[in-house]
Amino acid sequence: MSGRVFLLGDGVSTDAIMPGRYNVTTDPDALRRSCLIEARPDFVETVQPGDVIVAGRNFGCGSSREHAPLSIKRNGVAAVIAASFARIFYRNAVNIGLPVIRCAGAHRVLRDGDQVSVDAMTGVITTATATLHGEPPSGVALRIIEAGSLVDLIRHGGWAALEEERRVS
Amino acid sequence: MGTITEELFSRRLGHAVHAGDTVIAEVDVAMAHDVTGPLAIEAFRSLDLPLWDASRIVFNFDHVMPANTVAAAELHRVIREFCVEHGITNLFAEGICHQVMVDRRLARPGGIVVGADSHSTTYGGLGCFATGLGSTDIGVVFATGRTWFRIPETVRVEVHGNLPRGVAAKDLALHVIAQMGADGADYCAVEWGGDAVAAMSVDERLTLCNLSTDFGAKTGIIEPDAVTIAHSGGEPVDLHPIHPHYVRTLVVDAERLRPQIAVHPSIDNVHDIDDVAGTSLDEVFIGSCTNGRLSDLAIAASILSGRTVHPRTRTIIVPASRSVYLDALGAGYIETFARAGALVLNPGCGPCLGRQHGVVGPGERVLSTSNRNYPGRMGSPDAQIFLASPAVAAASALTGAITDPAMLEEVV
């Protein structure tokens, strides 16, 4: 899948992705419209399905609010690529099926507006001039991604399937 | 064998586990609040499974309580109806979720508690493994009682000596965050220990574990001891680390600490108070799951007693819970605050997250005893947020500018 890069910096908090004043709802479209509303006001107006967010360290730090990755996913973002992710954001993104890729140098190599193609399963990020090898989820997180979401994993086999697999492996 | 976290999980699972292992474990309690709860309920409903255990599911209304918009009222309605439908009686609207969990002894030493709020790490101050998860994870716990954990590596913070007068657990935590960086304990457990921590009250321990999430930790945890058991009741729980391996050990000499300020725009932008003293303030907020407990209000009252807050600085004080509020009333603190010209608001999250009363405007400066100073956290992204202890907050409210409480006698 290919799309345009929205480049963000280090320490993008969940307050920047989805300010607390905007997440008093579970309505998907309301959440979609509020994504990065103050940190990157052009985002919602210009994002296209397949675009990617590229950021530095500690992306999604702060709150556990799942509204943040949900709002990104609802905008059709193909993947979030960051040097590192805050723990709860990463887990939330995996749980709802928003692809996340750790890639130490991507935010220095890629520029805002670049066209890139991303393979969320292998972590390979390709531009016109460079190929970057990011780290896709592994372990239980990979199993959730393969199932589609945590809800899908639990609906189709549940924890027992994971435990059985671990005994076998 | 191992760290407090490894000891706790090994005991719970009945076999030895080590950092890096992935386990599926049953939790004691799962908590959600008025903002994360509705999404957790949606996740639970989509599973089409029966409820795990109504007695071990807890909801708190605190982030927007009482509701200030129709949308907030709607979130409350969704949760109320869910609780009625499933016979969940642990539905509280009496303060910040984390303090209510402590007040009502729902988080227990040696236990495993998960909450749909990042500051669920707070209960680690009682010697349990407590961590924040998102709504979908919590919704799955509502159905299965279980979740998966990667047993974390541990950072040990060893604190020796006595905190100087006017220096609080908050200052210690900010000092450690400055050393570690805002992602310095990513995915790790943070063990707080040493004689200075052993000498701390439960309130202070909760503050340390609360702030552990703000430098990336999966949990903050303190070995349960006589102080813990005196608070929580029940049998002693031995989680003493045995031949632990720590990925990092930070040794802090408490005697050398000064009041600390985390300066806009990140929590690891920490300065000694002298660097920013005199910065004028539009708002002071004393409260939050970090510093809204009785001992915090006691310090604030001792400083505000018989004085009046500066006219340019609206001062908002929010007891963490109804229990704290009642104790503060009994001790006369609430009257002290009212006489000093502070606004005392109902127990809850207050202005911390910019969603209800106390929202700050563009260009304003606020000093808060809470835990986050990201741009936009408390309102306008063009406001500046400074984080500090209740003593610094109270002293600053009097002068209308950032003030070291030790200097107060000279300036007021």
Short description:
Chain A contains 9 helices and 7 strands; from the N terminus they run E-H-H-H-E-H-E-H-E-H-E-E-E-H-H-H. Chain A has 169 residues and is of the alpha/beta class. The mean pLDDT of chain A is 94.
Rg estimate of chain A, integer Å: 16 Å
- How are the strands of the largest sheet of chain A arranged? 4-3-2-1-5-6-7
- The span between the termini of chain B is 54 Å
Greatest contact between two chains: A-B, 43 and 55 residues
What is the global morphology of chain A? globular
How is this fold's topology laid out?
The complex is a heterodimer of chains A (169) and B (412).
Chain A: E1 2-7, H1 14-17, H2 28-33, H3 43-46, E2 52-55, H4 67-74, E3 79-82, H5 87-96, E4 100-102, H6 106-109, E5 115-119, E6 124-126, E7 131-133, H7 139-147, H8 150-155, H9 158-168
Parallel strand pairs in A: 1-2, 2-3, 3-4
Antiparallel strand pairs in A: 1-5, 5-6, 6-7
Chain B: H1 4-13, E1 22-26, E2 29-33, H2 37-47, E3 57-60, H3 70-86, E4 91-92, H4 97-103, E5 112-115, E6 129-132, H5 135-144, E7 146-150, E8 154-160, H6 169-180, E9 189-193, H7 195-198, H8 202-212, E10 219-221, H9 226-232, E11 248-253, E12 260-262, E13 270-272, H10 273-276, E14 283-286, H11 288-291, H12 294-304, E15 314-317, H13 322-331, H14 333-340, E16 343-344, E17 365-368, E18 384-387, H15 390-399, H16 408-411
Description:
Chain A starts with a strand and ends with a helix. The relative contact order of chain A is 0.15. Chain A has 9 helices and 7 strands, in the order βαααβαβαβαβββααα. Chain A is α/β, with parallel strands linked by helices. Chain A is globular. In chain A, strands 4-3-2-1-5-6-7 form a 7-stranded mixed beta sheet, with helices on one face. Chain B has 412 residues and is an alpha/beta fold. Helix content of chain B is 34%, strand content 18%. Chain B contains 16 helices and 18 strands. Chain B has a 5-stranded parallel beta sheet, with helices on one face. The longest helix of chain B has 17 residues. Chain B starts with a helix and ends with a helix. At the A-B interface, helix 5, helix 8 and helix 9 of A face helix 2, helix 3, helix 5 and strand 7 of B.
